[in-house]
Design a protein that fits this description.
Length: 323
């Protein structure tokens, strides 16, 4: 028991103070909202209060997951992100119009998850980059061709690699953040991870709120994301860039690098959300899953990070190489 306590103390002391403060703020906010929503549910119980409680409970799961990924030994975070990636892959494959003859290719997609995340865990950059985008993109069409069924084969050759790219390759860049090194920067991958998650999450909120405040004029993509306007998009980007400067203490970035990354994450967040919305409208579904009550599936929560994560990683990898 004493050894366990000593081990826990060493783990806690190893967490940088800035990271502790961020998570302290997050969990304090969740405790406050939990109390408020509980009181509201007891006094004016209705559909809205029930939905708020479900969403808040899902945010607890998300916050705890991010806490484990960022502060526990890296193997735990890798397993969690790999599980989320596996779940998003399953969500997308289950709602996609695929053929019975595609089963072997689908099985290989599932098998690709542990391989891709092992490459990310050990930091084998060259293998990480080409495994899905080159090797799997060659293997899958060959497997589909060898099945002997040609009806709809072109569609399957397009859909399956695209799903693998979106649900496995792109999210796996999160774990590659822990292999980036900057001189005199002690927060490491945890700070970089929190930075992109916070900015992507708040960018979505900023663009939605500004769009509502400015009214529903000049919508950007009315048939895909009808609640997003040009004004909301631009002011959301400015707000996200401002937040990027405010929480720059989590990163080794300069003032102008923070503005650049905040803007890039904001743009990528919008198009990631729009991309998933377009797919769901085509398939005539509301959510990709139901694992997070009030939010939908894992992919419904990751939509604003899908495009942002790999672009964010490669920009800061370039910055790290310059430092």
């Amino acid at each position: 028991m004493t050894r366990r306590i000593e081990k826990m103390i060493r783990w806690y002391n190893s967490i940088p103070e800035e990271i502790k403060l961020v998570f302290l703020f997050v969990f304090a906010l969740l405790i406050l909202t939990s109390i408020i929503f509980y009181i509201l549910d007891k006094t004016i119980h209705n559909h809205l209060t029930s939905d708020l409680i479900k969403r808040n409970n899902s945010w607890w799961k998300i916050a705890i997951g991010v806490f484990i990924i960022g502060t526990f030994p890296r193997i735990y975070g890798t397993i969690i992100v790999a599980f989320i990636s596996f779940s998003t892959l399953r969500e997308m494959l289950s709602i996609s119009p695929l053929r019975a003859s595609d089963r072997l290719a689908i099985f290989l997609c599932y098998l690709a998850v542990p391989i891709q995340f092992h490459l990310a865990y050990v930091g084998f950059y060259n293998g990480f980059i080409i495994f899905i985008t080159l090797i799997m993109f060659i293997i899958i069409p060959i497997i589909l061709m060898l099945s002997g069924s040609t009806k709809g084969i072109g569609r399957s050759m397009s859909i399956i690699p695209s799903i693998l790219l979106v649900t496995v390759y792109m999210p796996s860049h999160l774990m590659m953040l822990f292999h980036l090194e900057f001189k005199d920067f002690l927060l490491g991958g945890t700070g970089l991870l929190l930075y992109v998650i916070i900015l992507a999450s708040f960018n979505d909120i900023f663009q939605y709120i500004w769009g509502k405040l400015l009214g529903n004029k000049k919508k950007m993509l009315p048939k895909i994301v009808p609640d997003r306007t040009y004004g909301g998009f631009l002011l959301g980007l400015i707000s996200t860039a401002g937040l990027a400067i405010l929480i720059r203490f989590l990163t080794p970035f300069t003032f102008w690098q923070a503005i650049l990354l905040g803007t890039v994450i904001g743009i990528c967040g919008f198009f990631g959300d729009a991309l998933l919305q377009a797919i769901k409208r085509d398939l005539k579904i509301r959510d990709t899953g139901s694992v997070l009550p009030g939010h939908g599936g894992f992919l419904d929560r990751l939509d604003s990070l899908i495009i942002a994560i790999p672009i964010y990683y490669h920009i800061i990898r370039y910055i790290a190489n310059l430092s």
